[in-house]
Design brief:
Elements (H helix, E strand, L loop, with lengths): L4 H11 L3 H10 L4 H11 L1 H7 L6 E8 L5 E9 L2 H4 L2 H17 L11 H14 L5 H19 L5 E2 L2 E5 H12 L4 E9 L3
Amino acid sequence: MEITAQMVKDLRALTGAGVLDCRKTLELAGGDFDKAAALLREKGLVSASKKSERVANEGLIGHYVHTGSKVAALIEVNCESDFVARTEDFQAICKELAMQIVATKPNWVRVEDVPAEQVAQLKAEAEAEAAGKPAQIVERIVEGKLVKFYEENCLMEQAYIKDESVKIKDLITAKIAKLGENIIVRRFARLEIGG
């Protein structure tokens, strides 16, 4: 069965889950709307997406110093209450994210943080490389280069170092569902000797 944009829109309106999550779940359910809604509820994506709009003013500064003390990271991760901030799960995610930063060297937290000038420059470079090809191919090449750039440079788009099949943003969504509170990565700093 073909998954239409209207089906995705209706499922998103019902559940509050993201567009891609709705599309993937509909495909998994073979186009069965009720089954897809049930699957989304089971995953906790519905409640996590609703929680993502709540204010998160508590939290922790997570840290990780790599063996040899030559590289380290600090990260501010916020949640809604100090109760959750003191849980082992929350403290563990803060440390995991700091380890991720040490290992992968991201420059920004999310795609929206990348300066518009840099995105425009990347697009221009990709278009120049693809010069002479049909417009739809150029568009795909540009999109592919941007996606790759974001996956390398934006923390939330990176593959998790302990499970490459999971993106950091999905890891955070899973923690939101488990802990029952919104979790926001505010900022980070990576320090390296001689770097």
